[in-house]
């Protein structure tokens, strides 16, 4: 994932920062507890496509 793209992408729900999980190929929003998938190098920033994070 391109570092410049990560710098400008935000969560579509809360507009918060995202963390890149390289192993899972996901962008994580800690505030909304969602993981947005990256498919074929393209972030899918749709709330209905996001995976809820497990409670820790």
From TrEMBL:
A GO CC term attached to the entry:
cytosol
InterPro entries given in the database record: Trm112-like (IPR005651)
Write down the superkingdom of origin: Bacteria
Please tell me the species this chain comes from. Parvibium lacunae
Name of this chain's protein: UPF0434 protein DU000_01120
Per the similarity annotation, which family is this? In the N-terminal section; belongs to the LpxK family.
